[in-house]
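User: Is it possible to get a 3D structure for a protein together with its bound compound? The compound here is manganese (II) ion. I've pasted both below.
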Amino acid sequence: MEILQLKSWFEGVEKYPFIIAGPCSAESEEQIISIASFLASTGKINLFRAGVWKPRTRPGTFQGAGVKALKWLRRAKDEYNLRIAVEVAFPEHVEVCLKHGIDVFWIGARTVSNPFSVEELSAALRGVDIPVLVKNPLSPDIDLWQGAVERIYAAGVRKIAAVHRGFSPFERTLYRNMPKWEIPIELRQRIINLPVICDPSHISGKAEYVPEIAQKALDLTMSGLMIEVHPNPSGAFSDSAQQLTFDQFRSLMSTLVIRKPTIEDQGFLNQLEELRNQIDSIDFQLIELLASRMKISGKMGKYKYRNNVAVLQMERWLEILRTRGEHGSHLGLDPPFVERVLNFIHQESIRIQTNILNNLKTNGEHWSEEE
Ligand code: PEP
Ligand code: MN
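Assistant: Yes, that's possible. Here is the predicted structure of the complex:
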């Protein structure tokens, strides 16, 4: 695929990393102008972002200001000499944005999750020379993400970048979305030269975690960052916990350690380094899964105490060994290896349950680990 690099998207884009910033949602003309004025004054951004139509998980929440916001954005563009990016989900969005001089489109995670929608958007983009950012789908399905990039490319769009915004977790995690860094790394291996921009705001879900994720993305030589900024995050109509104040944005820009990738690894590191980064990410997820498993073991310990059930139940254990062993061999793992790993995990689980049992016996029913 012949994808045009970010620096050739517009005139004067020499800066690395490519910074996209702006509010989650356009809320009012005043809000847009205040953010545009601030961000323009930093001289750090390549692109101003704002959501005009908001795909909300639950009904009854702010759906976006709609078409009238495009006029506010036009004013921000003209008065502060900014380029503007807006999320599009329907062909009608594309049409009305083009009329209002929007410079870049992004396709949101929920829309990318649906190939019908991406197909419709790609038809609407045919013959339109405008850069398109493709966010990752909600689930860690790399084929779906790759497919969306390919569909947009097939429409003739050559200015394409992927945006890594993390993946919906199965259960609550520290971050709002799991980064699973191995996935954007693999996407870069599959589509050579595809710029990948990280969105630490949607990964973190919390302003305080934005800097560590932004730094990690730069350490992995991602091409840029998309960051939500709001004059008063706590009063924001959407994503209030994760948007940075002006001061936080300024301080992030001054503390990020930027190592400009060399020509050879622009866009992707050498193969070994990339594989190591993928392994690192998977190891951390293994540890997180183990921690979740042990937490449940703790709960089982309490349950077993209350119901007077023995900690070790041989039948259940044999069943675990058998089913996991079978699953492992389907996936090409050596059965004795799977058995050893399970034994280790099981021993730790028994230790945790026995501890809890002993504590409950000594300190009574109301004892809890937190105390
Ligand atoms: C957004 O960028 O505000 C947004 C809705 O993002 P995502 O599609 O990644 O959830
Ligand atoms: Mn948002």
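The pocket of phosphoenolpyruvate (ligand 1) is lined by residues 24, 51, 55, 108-110, 135, 165, 202 (CB under 6 Å). Residues 271-306 form the longest helix (36 residues).
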